[in-house]
Amino acid sequence: EVPECNTNGTCSCSTGSFGTSKEVFFCSASSFLDIDECELGIHNCSQKCHNTKGSYRCTCHSEYFKLASDQRSCKRLDSEEPWLFFAYGQSIWNMSMNGEEIYLQKSGLQKVAMIDLYIKEKKLYYADVQPNILEVTSLDGIYSRQLQTFEVDGLEGIAVDWIGKNLYSLRRTDLFVQTLDGLFRKILYRKIFRLPRALVVYPQKGKLYASDWSSSAFIACLNMDGTKWQKIITAGIIWPNALTIDIFSERIFWADAFLDTIQSADLDGKRRRTVVEGSNSVPHVFSLAVFDDHLYWTDWTYRGVLKANKLNGQNFTILERTTFSPFSINLLFMNFLDKKNACDAAGCSQLCLISGGKKVKCECGDGYFLEKDGHSCKSKCSDKEIVCDGSESKCVSKMYRCDGIMQCKDQSDEQNCTLRICPPGHFQCQTTKDCKMPSAICDGKRQCVDGSDERYCQ
User: Fold this and answer.
1) Burial category of 259 from C-beta neighbours within 10 Å (exposed 0-12, middle 13-18, buried 19 and up)
2) Sorting pLDDT into bands at 50, 70 and 90, what band is 326?
3) Residue 24 pLDDT > 70
4) What pLDDT is recorded for position 32?
5) Range in 227-231, 259-263, 343-347 with the lowest mean pLDDT
6) Which of 76, 107, 126 is the last residue of a domain?
């Protein structure tokens, strides 16, 4: 028997239990039922929660953390300090986690909105949508290279897969994947979105998450090879404006810029909980990041970078104010790297895509097909043709390359050309630069000294 209830008729039960007795003034121990604090989301574990009879216990990822003395927090085993990176229109900045130090990372841009980091090689990927450029630069500023100069306008999210060494991107209604060097690109889905907004990958699990804020807003989950597409959040969501994943608690976080909330859920969309809410705290979140016990985000109304506790929204702090609206935010931390992965041993000649868990498979960029060995890729075009980059995968005769007329929508047939002196539409001999009429090409008679006018004929 348990102690008698208060004389006013209200009963209380021990933590982790609740009474089911219908008696007014007392309840027996047999009437107590254990509740699962982990399932109900009423725990305060930093990472993992495990239900016990009448209570719960917290655990941490043992490779990187140890359980703190408060028995709920996870303390990192290393002392390395991460850094925040955020896009700011014409520039990219990096900042200490407490906001006390801030440095200019990259300037001279026009409208950079999306960024992500390839931590292993200390590279920063960003989309400058106004000049239609996707670029990569080393964090020390020594190395910089354009990866793509087409179909960058309309990009709504980029995400680096540090295991498969790929870059995923959302553009208008489509989902793309390409190698980090930009050489091979594949469309995973066409016309599957209406108003896509945010993108995040979880390579250790082989999962990709994307949001859409159309009239039927949703958050979707799929394998990183494009299989098993599923909408996991469809209710109570209007403008899912930001996504991030806490890989240690294995929860996804998102911000709704219409509902003024930051929420979280398990990776399958279950066990939702609201972390921060209200127009005074999160009036218009654009991008999210998570590290240790805190969420970090950019907000257009505050015009700044902010943070709060990831479990309850407490310790709300404005880290940095900006003159204009900030965009994408991400963080750099070197120690959370997978030392080995299946793609290293897969032997894929172009794309290595994670198909869920630790399984991988080789794929080819658009314009190529996978050969029978399951690793090698061969062009769908003949050896006398080139394949257009971008989304059309069109084969164009090499004789039309650098002729001054765009055959490819992405202009790839007119890129990296030598100096051209002939009028558009005329053939220019490769060595002598002589100009020949189109009617003289592939007529069975050599017009150019080097024979280049007859070289790529069918």
Assistant:
1) middle
2) very high
3) no
4) 56
5) 343-347
6) 76
CATH number at residue 32: 2.10.25.10
Considering 76, 96, 127, which residue would you say is the last residue of a domain?
A: 76
- 296 and 413 both lie in a single domain: no
Domain count, the chain: 3
* Residue count (the chain): 458
Query: Residue for token digits 């980091």?
Result: 117
pLDDT, residue 30, reads: 47
Among 316, 229, 230, residue whose Cα is nearest residue 276? 316
In terms of domains, do 61 and 183 share one? no
Both 67 and 96 in a single domain?
no
pLDDT band, residue 232 (cuts 50/70/90): very high
Q: Are 391 and 187 in contact (CB under 8 A)?
A: yes
Q: What residue type is 419 in one-letter code?
A: L
Distance CA(285)–CA(175), nearest Å, equals 23
Which CATH number does the domain housing residue 181 bear?
2.120.10.30
Question: What is the rounded CA–CA span in Å between residue 167 and residue 38?
Answer: 35
Q: Does residue 79 or residue 251 have the better pLDDT?
A: 251
Q: Determine how many CB atoms are found less than 10 A away from the CB of residue 359.
A: 12
Which residues share a beta bridge with 204?
Answer: none
Q: With contact defined as beta carbons under 8 Å apart, do 306 and 317 qualify?
A: yes
Structure tokens at 253: 């976080």
95 lies in the same domain as 136: yes
Closest to 325 measured CA to CA, from 84, 87, 85, 153: 87
Same domain? 50 vs 107? no
d(CA 83, CA 305): 13
Q: Are residues 145 and 292 in the same domain?
A: yes
Q: What is the DSSP letter of 344?
A: H
Residue 42 pLDDT greater than 60, yes or no:
yes
pLDDT, tens digit, 9 for 90 and up, residues 182-195: 989 999 998 899 99
Q: Which two tokens stand for residue 145?
A: 């290279």
Q: How is residue 442 annotated by DSSP?
A: T
The secondary element (H helix, E strand) that includes residue 342 is helix 342-346
DSSP H stretches of helix in 202-276: none
**How many angstroms separate the most distant Cα atoms in the chain?**
111
- My answer on whether 180 and 254 are in the same domain is yes
Domain that residue 130 falls in: 83-332
